[in-house]
Amino acid sequence: MTRVRVEWSPEGERLRGLRLPVEVRTPTLALAAETTTGGELDLEPGRYVVSARLPSGQALSRIVDVEGERHEVVLAAGPAHPAEPAATFASPRARQAIERAAAARGEVALRLEEGLRRAADRRRPPRAPVRRRRLSLPGTPSGPAGGASMLDRAGSLWTSAVEGVQTLLGGGSAPAREEAVRPAAPPARLRFFVARPLELRADPVAVDLEVAEADEDRAVLRVPPAAAVRCAQVLQPGRPPVNLALPTSEEAGCLLVVHREPGRDGLAGSDGVPGRYWVEVQLERPLAALLLGYRRNNALSEERSTAERLLVEAGSDPVAAALAAWSLLRFGGHDGLGENPERLRRGVPWLPDGPALHGELLALRGDHGAALDAFLEVRGRGLPLFSDGLSALHARLQLYARSPGEFAAHRLDPVRRLLGLLQPFLAVLDLTQPVTTFNGLDPARPDDDPLPEALPQTAGGLDLAELF
Amino acid sequence: MEGAPVAAAPGGAVVSLVLDRRQGGRPGLHALLCGVSHYVHLPAGGGERAERTFGLQQLSSTATTVWRFYQWLLAADREGRLPLPLATVQLLLAPAAAELEAEPAMGQAGAGLPTRRGFVGAARAWRQAASASDDEMTMFYFAGHGVQRQQKDSVLLLHDFGDPGIGGPLVNAIDVRQLVAGMAPPRNPARRIARRQLYFVDACRMPVGDFQQHEWQNVPDLWVVELNGLDDRAAPVFFASVPGASAFATAGDQTLFSQALFECLDRLGARSPRADDPDPRYRVTTLSLISALSQAIEAVNAEHRAEQTFAPDGQQRDVPIVFHDRPPEVDVRVSVDPDLAAPRLRLEVADRLGQPSHAVDDPAVHPWDFRLPAGLYTFSARLRSEPDPPFRATSQLEKVELPRAPVTLRVGP
């Protein structure tokens, strides 16, 4: 047998140390073994295909001939998604925003070049030493991948465009770069609440945000740890307010990734048809972020193996443990959950997902009396942080409410009251998002009403346009 | 037997058992298939108009879709590719006249009408067949109109939906959640039910405003739902559209979801087995199907300029759905770098045993697109005349695996 170690060398701090699920296949592509990057396994000498996959779909693969006592396999990345590494953990919808922003940036640059050429023709100036750089968008044959290089190229193109304008105008004072060529970021605000919607309460709260990353199209805000049920609310003109649960705990914060999307003609805010923002929650713990990424991208095999690992490695982080447990429940792996759901329910008194998880596990085991007790505890804690939790809670309570022969009447009254509180949320819940996401200006009273075309002056919160 | 005349159950309810191959004691696959194109109480349905039609119209492809799914099941069973032999099929069809004209066999198969009564009878017989043992397997496929009263909710509208002679707009409809809950393992350990259950719901989940204004527009119970015992089912539900979206179809042909589904069942969803699995065949499983469907639906949308969507739900325990006797065909695209070398090269492909698999010798074509069965291959770019600096011949060992295999051969600086 040969002891085989599998490694990979990703770009970016956030990806280093991430242990991706790895499949080892025979030459007939039958699955021989599974491990993770950074892990080791024993294989008979011979030829194997070793592969892994990032949530965004990028494949890493090597065909190796294993021999000797020890063998190291370093996985090489295949063709990268144009938006890597920024898009590694993103949903398909967020990647769309990234791609549209990159395409718009290309359109802007091309229009500026065209504008300069026309101005030059009209004025017939002497040949101006305008520096022009060939535009290369990430992922095109002439350009390497990478969000950072996209920024570099865009920045240099703005520079050369402005310098060109200055030269054509005979060296007069040129307008500031931002005023001359940079389109305005669309308006939007970000607010935070401590949410107790099942008690019809949502109290504004200040959150000490840190801007972890920012470029022209994307900003990453770090939300600090807190053992509280909070939500972020995004206000954009003409759209329903969106409330996103913040999956934080005492042990770990989370990240809000704000993608700026261009308007209709590719120029955000420049033609009266404003762009918008797409905001997505990511977990700070890398393995949890990886799981959420696989979930968002329907990479179910990788999601399942990552959830199994996260449940073991979550340690004292209840939010990471809850995320893993919901995935495993969906895959029918409730045997492997052990005592974790009960531990989350009894040991983490603020976490709504604890009793929801324990209730669902008890229900799957057929212990419906105990399940009902667990579900009713959710009301005192708030909406589950993950949409699986809200769905499971609602479905079970509906089933119990229609099973009067199973429970004493007095036990069903609180079920019906809780259902009445939950139903408005189910009506506006975005079930495509794994983190609980719903519409409504008041997080305690959800609705689908869009905001007016101009945000009220008293909206408060962080001005998202200032990030860009 | 197949295509037997519809039998009448006691009480006059029509039971649409078109296939019954049960062999005592041997587990099998039991299908309940329901395709509704013709809605008798909607405009042009020929019956008394419903009091409220909610803007719904006749359909033209949903019965055909279910009929084709039935044919797919029969073919897969004949070829021994289903996880269990096909044991029973309950078939309910309400085709449009044009569908019957295009596929006359639909009218001769002995299918029952998907009225409320017909569906309830078929569903109960289906559940009874599935209760022979825990080792049975079930498949459910519905195609027709669907609406939602709230999120995580799907109500399927039957052939006699909107009957003005019956109170309430949703009485001739089926709550999917109730259907699935009623198939849960019972608490009484002496009673059994299939532990592998697949549900395909190929219907709109449009939120109909009028429905939402009345919180409890009750859909009458399909059956008494007893609370479950240990629920260790594999019971994935494949919804053809996410909440609030429409399901799309090619008029008179089949639904876009089913086109994507068949592509996945027949090729795109196939995965290789574990090396220690005694069955060496490729197979489509619950998880591989969910993963592949997203891509297949993207391709269908691109082809038809549609916005078909898909949402998996339910307990997604991984179980095989269909097997393949051969590795699936994979789209391969081979390019050379630099591409200006392409006219000077020919391509040869050999399998892992060195046997020639494919060759391209056309200087006008590049990149080279073709299909190969999944596996390992050596791709060789050979110069037409040697030497031909700065280009050189090259060979590379590559994996060819779904969904597609791009290969780049570096033949020069």
Q: How many strands appear in the DSSP assignment of chain B?
A: 23
Spans of chain B of 5+ residues with little confidence (pLDDT < 50)? 1-14
Estimate percent helicity of chain A.
25-40%
Give helix % range of chain B. 10-25%
Strand content of chain A: 15-25%
What structural class do the secondary elements of chain B suggest? alpha/beta
Q: What is the chain-wise order of helices and strands of chain B?
A: EEEEHEHHEEEEHEEHEHEEHEEEEEEEEE
Secondary-structure element string of chain A: EEEEEEEHHHEEEEEEEEHHHHHHHHEE
Oligomeric assembly: heterodimer
Shape of chain B: elongated
Q: What separation lies between the terminal Cα atoms of chain B?
A: 67 Å
Specify the overall morphology of chain A.
flat
Q: Greatest interface and its residue counts?
A: A-B, 44 and 48 residues
What does this structure look like?
The complex is a heterodimer of chains A (468) and B (413). In chain A, 35% of the residues lie in helices and 21% in strands. Chain A is an alpha+beta fold. In chain A, helix 1 runs parallel beside helix 2. Chain A is flat. Chain A starts with a strand and ends in a 5-residue tail after the last strand. About 12% of the residues of chain A have low confidence. By secondary structure, chain B is α/β, with parallel strands linked by helices. Helices cover 20% and strands 30% of the residues of chain B. In chain B, helix 6 crosses helix 7. Chain B is elongated, with a radius of gyration of 25 Å. In chain B, 51% of the residues are buried. At the A-B interface, strand 5, helix 5, helix 10 and helix 11 of A face helix 7, strand 15 and strand 22 of B.
